[in-house]
């Protein structure tokens, strides 16, 4: 780390997608050592690609060929698996790009598409997790209403809305993202050109509020209300039932996954985009830059963790090689009346329904 007085001193940061774009402005004189990302990013993206592709293809196989009758949860999770699969198939290009030291030989069109797929998958995952959480919330806290609003036809309509909203909101990425030639290599920026960077920061901030902050708050509220309902003692039972314990564990797992994959990425990205206007030391700026580079592949790991949720959700993916799930059992799972019902609501919904009727 050093303070230098001439633009020529930026030769060691030519691969930085943000700092290099602003080098000509002579705003900062910090030299960042980014050699770590040429190992971290190819390895992490490669692992996510292999593991995520295998798990999501396995999940899609289960949805299409092993589940005869779908319910609302199945519909949301199928769309989530489709989103994850579209993203992981683009990762080999990023693996090659970072392994070659930020050299993109595939053209500006593929650069735009790869970045677009990342943000589309990111926010599709968040919104479908929101749909799954609201569906689970209704099943536990308002079981009678969930019989109507939790129907598969509503889930299909909501899924179409999620896709349309996400794609429309991410279309500006295709406009902002571009490539540039630097010292004989082509950089595929994940932001924008220098003259559009200010507008890109505003756009990204709006997307973060609408597609991350608000859904995250709704999920937290839903899970708090669900946890309070699940932890209430059931008549004739002194301890939590097995199904209720499973539901509580599922709530914790989803919150942890959500926080680990999405929260650090959005926080560090906001700091990373904002540091140009901050009068901070080079050590602080380098720490922000390092944190952002680390959380980028961390955000991608949701493509590997989402299939784990399918297994934990009781969709019987562990028996993909066996017989198809019978129609009667699927209906029971949709109503939440079997221990292995969708998303672990199981007997809790049934028990709650009896309480309401009594």
Structure, explained:
This is P2Y purinoceptor 2. The chain has helices at 37-66, 72-88, 91-99, 107-141, 143-149, 152-176, 197-230, 242-261, 263-274, 282-300, 302-312, 327-335, 346-357, and strands at 179-182, 185-188. It is mainly alpha-helical. It has one domain: Rhodopsin 7-helix transmembrane proteins (Rhopdopsin 7-helix transmembrane proteins, Up-down Bundle), CATH 1.20.1070. It has a two-stranded antiparallel sheet. α1 (37-66) packs antiparallel against α2 and α2 packs antiparallel against α4 (107-141). It is globular. The chain starts with 36 loop residues before the first helix and ends with a helix. The model is unreliable at 1-28 and 321-358 (pLDDT under 50).
Unreliable segments of 5+ consecutive residues? 1-28, 321-358
For the largest beta sheet, what order do the strands appear in spatially? 1-2
Structure summary, number of beta strands: 2
- In total, the number of domains comes to 1
CATH superfamily: Rhodopsin 7-helix transmembrane proteins
**Overall residue-averaged pLDDT value:** 78
Summarize the biggest pleated sheet: 2 strands, antiparallel
Shape: globular
CATH level 1 name: Mainly Alpha
Question: What string, H for helix and E for strand, traces the elements in order?
Answer: HHHHHHEEHHHHHHH
- Shape-level CATH architecture: Up-down Bundle
GO cellular component, one term: plasma membrane
Family: Belongs to the G-protein coupled receptor 1 family.
Pfam families: 7tm_1
Protein name: P2Y purinoceptor 2
């Amino acid at each position: 780390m050093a303070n230098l007085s001439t633009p020529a001193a930026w030769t060691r940061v030519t691969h930085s997608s943000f700092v290099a774009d602003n080098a000509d402005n002579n705003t900062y004189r910090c030299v960042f050592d980014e050699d770590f990302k040429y190992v971290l990013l190819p390895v992490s993206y490669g692992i996510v690609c292999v593991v995520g592709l295998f798990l999501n293809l396995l999940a899609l196989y289960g949805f299409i060929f092993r589940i005869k009758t779908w319910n609302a949860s199945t519909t949301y999770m199928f769309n989530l698996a489709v989103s994850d699969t579209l993203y992981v198939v683009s990762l080999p290009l990023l693996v090659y790009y970072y392994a070659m030291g930020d050299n993109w030989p595939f053209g500006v069109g593929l650069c735009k598409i790869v970045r677009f797929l990342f943000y589309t998958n990111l926010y599709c995952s968040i919104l479908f997790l929101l749909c799954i959480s609201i569906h689970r919330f209704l099943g536990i806290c308002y079981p009678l209403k969930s019989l109507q609003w939790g129907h598969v036809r509503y889930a299909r309509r909501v899924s179409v809305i999620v896709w349309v909203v996400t794609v429309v909101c991410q279309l500006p990425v295709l406009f902002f993202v571009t490539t540039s030639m630097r010292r004989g290599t082509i950089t595929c920026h994940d932001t924008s050109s220098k003259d559009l960077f200010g507008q890109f920061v505003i756009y990204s901030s709006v997307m973060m509020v609408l597609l991350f902050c608000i859904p995250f708050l709704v999920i937290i509220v839903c899970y708090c209300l669900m946890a309070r309902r699940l932890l209430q003692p059931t008549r004739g039972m002194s301890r939590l039932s097995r199904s209720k314990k499973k539901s509580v564990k599922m709530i914790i797992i989803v919150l942890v996954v959500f926080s680990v994959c999405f929260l650090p990425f959005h926080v560090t990205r906001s700091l990373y985009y904002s540091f140009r206007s901050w009068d901070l030391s080079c050590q602080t700026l380098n720490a922000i830059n390092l944190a952002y580079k680390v959380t980028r592949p961390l955000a991608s790991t949701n493509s590997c963790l989402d299939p784990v949720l399918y297994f934990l959700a009781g969709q019987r993916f562990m028996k993909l090689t066996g017989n198809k799930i019978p129609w009667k059992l699927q209906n029971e799972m949709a109503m939440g009346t079997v221990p292995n019902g969708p998303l672990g609501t199981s007997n809790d919904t049934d028990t709650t329904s009896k309480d309401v009727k009594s």
